[in-house]
Design a protein that fits this description.
Distance between the termini: 44 Å
CATH architecture of the largest domain: 3-Layer(aba) Sandwich
Oligomer: single chain
Number of helices: 14
CATH topology of the largest domain: Aspartate Aminotransferase, domain 2
Helix content: 25-40%
CATH superfamily of the largest domain: Type I PLP-dependent aspartate aminotransferase-like (Major domain)
Number of strands: 17
Strand content: 15-25%
Radius of gyration: 22 Å
Shape: globular
């Protein structure tokens, strides 16, 4: 998914140095050094076009949507609805009815767990997750199992950070109701063959929930091609605003699911004797939505479409290759996660140095990375480490950023060698 397909026409080179000019935050110094931002797995920076789109909305079109006949409300509604169509096109959903706006990936997964899960899962059922999941794709299913009496199963991985297909298949049974799987591991960079696992899950009668937080910004995503039933992602990892996200769900499933939250806009009629529900997607969007966030997300998609997702994927794969080669020749450095198909994430440890110390020293050199368990404690336990340092790349990163990263790593190792 992250690698451009073999046999296609060559992808035009991406000029990351030129694109950096589009991101105001990158033009600053941190601790006296030019900012080298390598924490894209946590959140991406925002181009000026996204910042301007949000500001322009508040300057000119701010009003509540779908509830007013006045011109401002009509304009706000048009922009909100246009953003939904932008998302539908981005992931190739069959209809805008399948695109639910949420606060982010976490809320989207919780929506599935609490609406689809509570209405279908019984005490005799099982939910299967993978060993490399983010906490947001573990804890909601644990809560559901506690509530329903269902059993949580875990599909194992190998020392390279790849799921074991045979073991996954053996865990599937007529009891499996839900399979929850990350598209790309935030802690390891592993790209999972979602369609392969989805077909296996469907053959067992299970629905498939995909955490797409780490995949959607780094290459083309087609939910129909993936054959998943639900797909969740966050705008802020897609060069868009925080507080806006998306749940894709197959329309037939969403139609049968009960609302998760009650309030305005998700209803058709309300009386003290009972209420009826609005049509999709509004049934799952109670209350005033994050309208400006949707506008910003739409602008982010416009920006990325202008660059091309194939070009972004090719550029990031080149960065991953460069960083991986440098890491292999760096004494005392161990990469955590060596899957054959990886996104541009390098998690590592330095011998004798705690990752938090690594992050602090790198920050003193202006290099911004993420350190800790990355909301993936079971992954850390599997690899026998308390935490890792993680460099994650985006479209505006360059080989100069990689050079700066390894100069700062040299500095950290030199300090701890004294």
């Amino acid at each position: 998914m992250m690698n451009p397909a073999a046999g296609l026409e060559p992808v035009a080179a991406l000029d990351a140095a030129a694109l950096r000019r589009d991101f105001p935050i990158l033009h600053q110094q941190i601790n006296g050094h030019p900012l080298v931002y390598l924490d894209n797995g946590a959140t991406t920076q925002k181009p000026a076009s996204v910042i301007d789109a949000v500001a322009e909305f508040y300057h000119h079109d701010n009003a509540n949507v779908h509830r007013g006949v006045h011109l401002l409300s009509q304009r706000a509604s048009d922009r909100f609805d246009s953003a939904r169509e932008q998302v539908r096109s981005l992931i190739n959903a069959a209809s805008t009815a399948e695109v639910i706006f949420t606060r982010g990936t976490t809320e989207a997964i919780n929506l599935v767990a609490q609406s689809y899960g509570r209405s279908t899962v019984k005490s005799t059922d099982e939910i299967l997750v993978s060993a490399m999941e983010h906490h947001a794709n573990i804890v909601p299913w644990q809560l559901l199992c506690e509530e329903t009496g269902a059993t949580l199963r875990v599909a194992p991985m190998n020392d390279s950070g790849e799921l074991l297909t045979d073991a996954f298949t053996e865990l599937l049974s007529e009891k499996t109701r839900i399979v929850a799987l990350t598209h790309v591991s935030n802690a390891l960079g592993t790209v999972n063959p979602v369609r392969t696992f989805a077909r296996l899950a469907h053959a067992a009668g299970a629905v498939v929930v995909v955490d797409g937080a780490q995949s959607v910004a780094h290459g083309p995503v087609d939910v129909q091609q993936l054959e998943c039933d639900f797909f969740a992602f966050s705008g802020h990892k897609l060069y868009g605003p925080t507080g806006i996200g998306v749940l894709y769900g197959r329309e037939a499933l969403l139609e049968d699911m009960p609302p998760w939250q009650g309030g305005g806009d998700m209803i058709r009629t309300v009386s003290f004797e009972g209420s009826t529900w609005n049509t999709l997607p509004h049934k799952f969007e109670a209350g005033t939505p994050h309208i400006a966030g949707a506008v910003g997300l739409s602008a982010a998609i416009d920006y990325l479409n202008g660059i091309g997702f194939d070009a972004i994927a090719a550029h990031e794969q080149a960065l991953l290759g460069c960083a991986t080669e440098k890491a292999k020749s760096q004494a005392g450095m161990r990469i955590i996660g060596n899957a054959s198909d990886k996104a541009a994430i390098v998690s590592f440890e330095l011998e004798g140095i705690h990752p938090h110390d690594v992050g602090t020293i790198l920050d003193s050199a202006g290099v911004t990375i993420r350190t800790g368990h990355h909301c993936a404690m079971p992954v850390m336990q599997f690899f026998g480490v308390p935490a890792t340092a993680r460099a994650s790349f985006g479209l505006y990163n360059t080989t100069d950023d990689i050079d700066a990263l390894f100069v700062a790593i040299d500095k950290a190792q030199a300090l701890f060698a004294r």
